[in-house]
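User: I want to check something. If I give you two sequences, will you return the structure for each one separately, not as a complex?

Assistant: Yes, each is folded on its own. Here is the first sequence with its structure:
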Amino acid sequence: MGLKSLLISPFAKKIVANLRRQSDRAIDDQWLTLNMLVSKAKNTKFGRDHHFDKIQGYVDFKKNVPIRDYESFAPYIDLIKEAKPDILWPGIPLFFAKTSGTTSGTKYIPLSKESTPHHVDSARNSLFTYMVESGNHRFFDGKMLYLSGSPILQKTAGINTGRLSGIVNHQIPGWVKGNKLPSHEVNCIDAWEDKVSAIVRECAQLDVRVIGGIPPWVQMFYEELLAYTGKKQVIEVFPNLSLFVYGGVNFEPYRSQLENLVGKSIDSIETFPASEGFFAFQDKHPSEGLLLNTNAGMFFEFIPLTEIHSENPPRLSLAEVETGINYALIVTSNAGLWAYNIGDTVEFTSLRPPRLKVTGRIKHFISAFGEHVIGKEVDEAMMQTSSTLGFQVIEFTVAPQVNPAEGLPYHEWFIELTGFDGDIKLIEEKLDVAMQEQNIYYRDLIEGKILRPVKVTLLKPHAFRDYMQSIGKLGGQNKVPRLSNDRILADALQPYHRQ
């Protein structure tokens, strides 16, 4: 054990012991958090508009504060962008996290002086729980490489504004900075391909022990690293690499290909960060489910996914949820978000302590015929199929074909893969069987001859990378949608079909 890990170890144990105590009182902490948030914001414009001074509990809160998306918050955000204080939260935000919207264009998510530290603390806690659970302390004695967005910030009405990952780069504690890669100069490179090349050159001779990022972009880094060094496996370049930290997408469809590139299986930590808050992280190893951050300035509500489009959907507190049900995640926070629909769906794997897994995005689904297929289901079907047939998935997406030139409608899977030279019909057959196991409504449509079995379209090497580059979304926190209920992405991928 090196000096740094030796010094960190007792602090990590103390933090983890405190987290365990907090998880035991998660529901009580949630009620305390709600009361604190309402009390502190009662004199803001939002608090006055929604009669916070009359709110006595959760029933009043639900009655006074409706569920909102970003478009509904936009008038308040516009006031903040006019440099007006005390709009959503006392004072003015410390940062704006800038993220891509759909109908609203760029979104500006406020981060307050109270909310910002939780992003860093939660990332730290994910490492500390792994450290205590696994006994692996050595990674703190080497370099930790995180593939993230640029730390360059701009001003919006005097408020520092940038990508969340760039903002967090400015909050990293001093005891980590000496371990962190890439350097500030390299991280400021805007073009993703140029940045990855520069990171490879900077770190190829260093003792990298932790790598973090979204799996498809980490894969791109690995491929560049091997091309630059001439090595066959990443472990030859980084012999002490022992940990992969990820979030944003399900790792399992990518696991086989990444492990092939690394040269061995390494431990991993799943996290659930977003501009709106660091919601959960994996605290047990191994474990299915991420520990919900119930004492981090956020109050959580949950709407059953089957009810999300109802006029008055039921809003459930943490005390009311059940395991095995898909919920839309609703967040109220000390950044000034109030009953905010973040667009993610989750499913609880345990209640005491509250652990969940991310199952998809509300807007990423297929339900052209009422089947309501979600991300979790196609991920599971792909994992089963690739494991059975022995190929590695690079990336994939699924879309419906409602009006084919001939025959019944179907779901079309666009797949970039390696390690398969067989008949494509084998993939189609395995995927369709797996999907019928995952989704009973899909099975009914197949058996009822409303849909025909899936069709697979194989894509050229680097198809998704080239597509993302063509739309200016290569790298960083950008992700390929797993599912679409239309053909916009499917049609855009036409130039990338294998001949």
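And separately, the second sequence with its own structure:
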Amino acid sequence: MSDAQDTSKHTNRLIHETSPYLRQHAHNPVDWYSWGEEALARAKAEDKPILLSIGYSACHWCHVMERESFENPDIAQIMNEHFINIEVDREERPDLDDIYQKSAQAFMRRGGGWPLTVFLTPDQEPFWGGTYFPPTPRYGMPGFPEVLLGVAEAYKKEREQVQQNVHKVKAGLQHISSPQPSTDPLTEELLDGAVKDLSSFYEPVHGGFGDAPKFPTPPPFHMLLRQFARTKDQKCLDMTLHSLWKMAAGGIYDHLGGGFHRYSTDGQWLVPHFEKMLYDNAQLVRLYLDGWRLSREPRFKQVVEETLAYVRREMVHPDGGFYTAQDADSEGHEGKYFIWDPAEIKSVLGAELGEIVCRVYDITDGGNFEGKNIPNLIHANGRIEVTPTHPSPLEGEGEGGGEQVMADARRKLLEVRERRVKPLRDEKILTSWNGLMISGVLDAYQTLGYPEHLAMAEKALAFLLDRAYKHGRLFRTVTGGIGRLNAYLDDYAFLAAALIDAFEATGKAAYLDKTRELTAVMVEQFWDPQTGGCFFTGKDHEQVLQRMKTGEDSAIPSGNAVATMNLLRLFFYTGEQNYMDKAEQTLRLFRTHMDQNPFGMASMLCALDLYLAKPKEIVLVGKRDAPEMRDLLAKIAGRYVPNKTLVLGESDGKGTGYVPAAAKGKTAIHGKPTAYVCHNFTCSQPVTDWDALEKLL
């Protein structure tokens, strides 16, 4: 709903929904339904095609199409006359989004996107679709009224063609969701081949992959870093660190408030679509932590700290848990909250310091975005260097003083920005995305040692286990404190991964117990006993067209890949063979896809790396809260060891009950925190100092 819309004229069924995105459409003149039996039954009764619109609350072009078309009474009249109109929040119903995105891509012969506009038969079968349509012909696209009338006419008079389209799409969906196990071996050649493939479309000037629009895509970079750890192939490290540096310099990063926007519309990371998504920031926290571990670059650590400060400030529910997203738009304009002109900067900081800040962050009279400016460091190659050319305002600051002055300037500008009208925040709490963020926060806690990060992660876990997990089943979302909608594979896999991470961070056996419990439910609900791997929906979930099973990453890691990683980690902790069997079966199922599409299968390739390498099993015995123990843990976390498990045992060797078999009964030496490193069923001699332990890692 636009800011200026008169809500008094129209109110439709979506007013009763809990999704912020659906409620944004509650005052459109369109006769909207949410997805459900009422709408589907009416479509069958009246033999009308369904117009299915899928979007999300932070989507800029979703707001544009709503403002241009769904608020237009004339266009709404065409929609109401010829179609049963259904609006879906893709974040609540990723199953519908996945199926109908893939369907639309078959019609468009290109990538999909949002808003998604798909036309269905009353039996929910897609026969035509696209994404954004303008209200009148432009951008080389037909106007939306023309599309509506053409589709309505085709449905009435060209049913045979409609059915041919349906048959084609259904056959494609069947093929996509029916991978077959490979008998070829699972070897390191798959990992080596993936590096060659990624190198071929790596963009060496600004980093990242491909041209505009450019997305951060953490999974391929994680795969490259694992390859560097395995082979010492320097280009794998260089590609990743260069990309991290360039992203942190660009306008895709919020230099005042921290956190990353969704993606860049250009190739140099300058102009983003301004929405901020929880899942992007969760994944990028971990990627920048890995970059810091391998480079000790202070800028990467700063990005992590600033991003988590943003999350803590803007995205945390008072009872725990993390909100979904912040919108791209405010006051009806994309990016308005985030952009500046020189006069605004100088009015806050004064003329002299303001001039320096404008020069540092590329704030000019001409602007770099619609006459105003997105702060960035691209021209300075990511560096803040102010003292050599403009020393006067910074004299006497000493070493590092210039950076402190700039930090103070950013703080003052952020305080002023906070008084602007903020973008809307989607306050759904999605289980899967929360799992990603909890893992990121725990990784930061282990690496940087800030107690508030552990507190934030454990509070979020407690919130999810209380609100989103009832009677042995998980919910997809928590809205208004109440769990809703059946959970998907991603929800189970990502929350289980967060619980394993919490076990490693705290040594609390209850977290591993809960991981095993959730994994058992996941296997019971999602596992395919015929060919292996997990379906995206549970066995008692509403089935639409095709029960999908894929291993590809999207904007988030593949649920099957994360589930496989969890199964492997559980095997290494417990020694229970059924975990390894299912992990191996899943890897074999997607082996061909890993070979053919390494970029899309990057998370599964990371799981393959763990499977092939076998982890370093680190057992630390001693008092968990002792300063020496905390110091040892921080140093372990500060090393890049991607394939490891970590168990915190007690001084008497009893531990948690989940000590690797070869390490059971190990005790502290002379009362000091003592480390044992086990690999391939053999354990090292006990060590009590970091230098000796570092050599074992």
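Because they were folded independently, the notes below concern the second chain alone. The two ends are 55 Å apart (CA to CA). The chain has 25 helices and 20 strands.
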